[in-house]
Amino acid sequence: MDQISKKTKMIKKRLKILKKKFSTHGIDGYVIPKNDEFFSEFSIKDRLKTISNFSGSAGYAVVLKNKNYLFVDGRYSIQAKIEAGDNFIIKNLSEILNCKLFKNITLGIDPKIFTSDEINKFFLKFNKIKIISFNLVDEIYSTYPKNIKPFYSLKDIITGESYTKKIDKVSRILKKEKADYLFVSASENIAWLLNIRGHDNPTSPIPNCHLLLTKDKKFFLICEKKKLLKLIKEKKVAQNQIINPETIISFLSKIKIGKFIVDSKTCSIFYRNIIIKNHKIVKKEDPIYLLKSIKNKCEIDNIVNAHIYDGIALTKFLYWIKILNKKRITEIDAQNKLEIFRKKSKKYLFPSFNTIAGSGKNGAIIHYRATKKNTKMINKKDLFLCDSGGQYKYGTTDVTRTICFSKPSNYIRNIFTKVLKGHIAVVTSNLKTHYNGKLIDKRARASLLKGGLNYNHGTGHGVGFFSNVHEGPQAISKFNTVKLKEGMILSNEPGYYKEGKFGIRIENLVYIKKNKKKLSFVNLTMAPIDKDLINFDQLNEAEKNYLFNYHLNIYLNLSNYLNKKEKNWLASFI
User: Fold this and answer.
1) Coil, helix or strand at residue 19
2) pTM strictly above 0.85
3) What is the pLDDT of residue 3?
4) 471: closest CA among 487, 457, 488, 458?
5) How many CB atoms lie within 10 A of CB 574?
């Protein structure tokens, strides 16, 4: 029996066990989201994968008595069919909004992994919801890795601002909003507020915990004590500030009755119900998201340095795979080699997400993951798409390059050039007139749309400082209207994907800099763009000048760290 059949059989068995529990709990179906109790994007406890085999970063499974549905967005439509199509009917996430596929039934949920907004938006219109106080998937499979490593602090010289000053800022916001408490349910926001990091996520240095902050600047960490041993030793947290998660109901019922700010995106039904029992919720948006998105000079300087370390590794890798390597290699071989180049830097810690290394048709799977079981031999006639990133001391990187190994057809070159034109249009945007992601997204797609082409994902996401590789509230997409501000970091990644054939994406990270009262994007990523894929006749003079200056800047920053052959190759881009 091959590995796919084995996995399919195992998922069928788990689904059968889950469905047997429905009658006991008086439900007709059960809903499983991607996130865990901390609403992490990349979680060690991946219940959605456990029940469906789908490994993408977003989605919902709705398991009914006779049918199983998996809802994913456009990034994952192909991947979901491959990984879960044998056991699940794959649907676009937009179809869940009206729930016409399943009506007038009772759906069970775990209140610790859903928000009220999610339930109201997706499931309550046509169905009843029954809260089950424990997770049914955990009853089937509970052997997730456990991490006991304690949280640690970042020095002010790294973060650019002390945690006491950050608490002062948030306290002023609480008073302005006439709120007594802020319940911080997003761990990434606690990481920013207290200048701490942890080991609880596979690709992010995020410390999983919750926090209560009062308008008088007192804070309480809701977390197991063993995770806080270093912070206690540093006297950042006192014993009476530590709340065991098992006693949270008692703690929140005993504090002085007051007005709360909660985050509607990450405050679970479980916590919301405890809070509203004795208190009033006055606002549903955590102000830390916006504060965190605006990086200070110290953070930007650290991030710039991280991209130099990353640029050295990426440039060496691109030279190796495109010019130096003559052996036949697999996608796994390629991503392992890139990891070796990154590890040569003492500042490198670990990947910021699982590397996407897709050759040929696998490049068209937007969030493809090569494994030892499914890896493809890289064909020199195919395009190779590599999307990867690193967590460094101190900065988070994310970059995609698409390369060729033989002379590409004019068809491929023309599409690649349209993607490149969109990429350049983003980074050269006038941020006075194009002041949010929605306006910029149109520029990114313009050249492709003229040729009747498009891509089924956003053009860019926010990025954290030594934190999550995906961070809000800013983004470049059809729907994001958050005003762009100095210090924000975003990705710039238009693409095009021909199912069963190839994928093209060009991704850099950029930050917003102010110069003489004018805001503009500045590139962070330092890696050459494959000139063999460009049809220079399609570029105007401004675009050609941009490419020249972009590659010149890379050469000036990286050449001292390259050997003679690598340096000469990089010089050929200028």
Assistant:
1) helix
2) yes
3) 55
4) 488
5) 15
Per the CB < 8 A criterion, the answer to whether 503 and 497 are in contact is yes
* Length of the chain, in residues: 574
Measured from the Cβ of residue 216, the count of other Cβ atoms closer than 10 Å reads 9
The distance from CA 151 to its chain's CA centroid, rounded to whole angstroms, is 21
pLDDT given at position 353: 95
Of 191, 185, 241, residue with least CA distance to 211: 185
**CA-CA distance, 488 to 300, in Å (whole number)?**
9
Amino acid 124: pLDDT: 73
382: DSSP letter = S
Provide, rounded to the nearest whole percent, the portion of the chain with pLDDT above 70.
Answer: 99
Do strands 471-476 and 460-462 pair parallel, antiparallel, or not at all (unpaired)? Answer: antiparallel
DSSP 377: B
Residue 2 reports pLDDT greater than 60: no
Pairing of strands 508-515, 489-492: antiparallel
Give pLDDT, residue 99. 64
User: Which residue's entry shows tokens 């809701």?
Assistant: 222
Whole-number Å distance between alpha carbons of 528 and 542: 18
CA nearest neighbour of 365 among 170, 110, 83, 93: 83
Helix (H) or strand (E) holding 555: helix 541-558
Distance CA 15, CA 436 (A): 44
Q: Which residues contact 264 (CB under 8 A, 6 or more apart)?
A: 115, 116, 117, 284, 285
Nearest to 187 by CA among 106, 90, 292: 292
Contacts of 322 (CB under 8 A, 6+ apart): 403, 405, 530
The answer to whether 171 touches 179, Cβ cutoff 8 Å, is no
Write down the mean pLDDT value for the chain. Answer: 94
What backbone torsions phi and psi does residue 367 show, to the nearest 5 degrees?
A: -120, 50
What is the structure's pLDDT at 77?
86
pLDDT at 1: 40
CA–CA separation, 136 and 370 (whole Å): 30
